[in-house]
Amino acid sequence: MSDLIVQDVVKRFGRVTALDGMSFDVRDGEFYCLLGPSSAGKTTMLRAISGLEALDGGQISFNGRDMAGMPVQGRDIAMIFQTFALYPHLTVRKNFAYPLERAGVDSAEIARRVGEVAEMLRVVHTMDRLPSTLSGGEQQRVAIGRALVRRPKLLLLDEPLTNLDAKLRHDTRAEFKRLHRELGMTMLYATPDQLEALTMGQRVGVMRDGRVVQVNTPRSLYTAPLNTYVAGMVGSPAINLVPGRVARRDGGFVVELPFGQLPADAWRIHLSGGEQVYYGVRPHDVLLGAAPERGPSFPAKVHLTEPLGDVTLLDLEINGAAMKMALPEEKAVGIQPGNPIEVTLSAVDAHLFHAETGVRIA
Fold first, then answer.
1. 60-94 confidence digits (pLDDT tens)
2. What is the mean pLDDT of residues 135-150?
3. CA–CA distance, 121 with 138 (Å, rounded to integer)
4. Which one, out of 38, 70, 90, 189, has a CA that is 20 to 30 A from the CA of 212?
5. Within this chain, do residues 182 and 34 fall inside the same structural domain, yes or no?
6. What total of structural domains would you count in the chain?
7. Claim to verify: residue 304 and residue 212 sit in the same structural domain
8. Is residue 1 scored above 60 in pLDDT?
9. What is the pLDDT of residue 92?
10. Domain range spanning residue 312?
11. 107-121 vs 166-183: helix axis angle to the nearest 10?
């Protein structure tokens, strides 16, 4: 068992509270992602798990053992940092071998493990080179290998793709998924990039101000966000949030928006009337043209088009309200800035959030 349990963890730096009652768990063999913006506490959390930061409160347990007071070297944990942190004066082979030499592993076993890791990460051709002669992707693989050669029970990854270009980030994401599948290792990956979290994580914990505010599978976070914060963190392009008000009409409820009304039957059981709300709809769920079976349609004006290959983003204005729309490229052909179009909005494919708390109305 390699379960990690973080419970009510607090960490302060003077007057700044970096972790404020942080709680989550990572299951044995799971690829778990912590998703949050800069200063959310991701790095501090990983450093606390690894033993590099002492706690001011709460508990971290791993493999059923409380980690309090346990030395770094006794935790069976490896960490890959945002900067590759390779020894510049040592060859790749020596970088791989160094942690094993420090641990007193015999030379034959070191050679075997180093060879296995080099083959797995496809860096055999670099073994006698210095880190400064490697590409960014090769350096990242060496950093991964130096962690894997120890065979840790838990691998911590702190924004490891930040310093790579777009293609290398894509390739390395695939590499991490392959390694996880082949090794079955428990991995905890911290990132501010929702694409990384959603494509790699089996579960994702969304962080805000030193806490995890929601944990779920990537698909569930996208379709059922707890609040406007999670809805805005998950999904690209970002969700449209339009302010509105719930009103009673003809024995039912409607959401009054700047450009018209939407039926609120999807949320009726949770409404009383008069609530100030945000109507949240993903750009991919704004439909082109009239679709009365899905919802009412409204006239809109195109301000900007952004071709992205197979998808085109449209910046719209609907009676003063700004909204983004994502169209398959073939449907966007001929649409230009300044064009009037008709769009359909639905309650079925949208969310309603309380304006004051941001919490989703289920």
1. 999 888 988 888 777 889 888 877 788 999 999 99
2. 86
3. 9
4. 70
5. yes
6. 2
7. no
8. no
9. 95
10. 240-354
11. 130
In three-state form (DSSP H/G/I as H, E/B as E, the rest C), the secondary structure along the chain is CCCEEEEEEEEEECCEEEEEEEEEEECCCCEEEEECCCCCCHHHHHHHHHCCCCCCEEEEEECCEECCCCCHHHCCEEEECCCCCCCCCCCHHHHHHHHHHHCCCCHHHHHHHHHHHHHHHCCHHHCCCCHHHCCHHHHHHHHHHHHHCCCCCEEEEECCCCCCCHHHHHHHHHHHHHHHHHHCCEEEEEECCHHHHHHHCCEEEEEECCEEEEEECHHHHHHCCCEHHHHHHCCCCCCEEEEEEEEEECCEEEEEECCEEEECHHHHHHCCCCCEEEEEECHHHCEECCCCCCCCEEEEEEEEEEECCCEEEEEEEECCEEEEEEEEHHHHCCCCCCCEEEEECCCCCEEEEECCCCEECC
Cα–Cα distance, 263 to 253 (Å, whole number): 6
Pull the structure tokens for residue 142.
């060496």
pLDDT at 2: 60
Are 116 and 177 members of one domain? yes
